[in-house]
User: What shape does this take?
Amino acid sequence: MLTESPSYIFFVENKALPLTEFSVQVSPIHGVGLYSKHAFSEGEDIYKIEGSRVTADYDANFCEGPNWIGLGWHEWLIPEHANPIMFTNHACLPNAIISDGLTVIALRDINIGDEIVVDYSTTEVDPFWRMLCSCRAATCRKQIQAFSHFPHEMRRLYERLLNREFLAAARRANAIYPSAGLRDNALTVHPCRRN
Assistant: This one.
């Protein structure tokens, strides 16, 4: 919820975060987060992610792209620095998701002052990617991994909203690297990935 914490204005490359829609404030989840300045209804568009496409190989020692958004097989989007996604934290119980056309939509009603959060597992196909989580949700998974390692019941819930290219890449990654992200089932995180 909106608190007395100061809002931050971010200017990067002469672009400002659209502060009529959002504020960036200290987050109990991690660092700063993106907060809504008006209500969004379930299914409503929240913002669009813009950036540059990039390709790279999957590798257990991969150290690039801490904020990249998975698009398809070996393909990501590097978001523009002032894009709201740069301030959107992960939560295991998200209220938003990146849908077709790189549009972030509300998974449920979002009230004024709510932090907008997505499940980062729905943004990554790289089978080696993983991240420790401390989102504080009752359903927190403690460690999150690429979509191909997402719990089946949750995968079914979100599949209808995700880009077909992304889903095809996740299925392909699971077929080729079925246990890449599950080594030792340890709660470890790659030091080069977003946290």
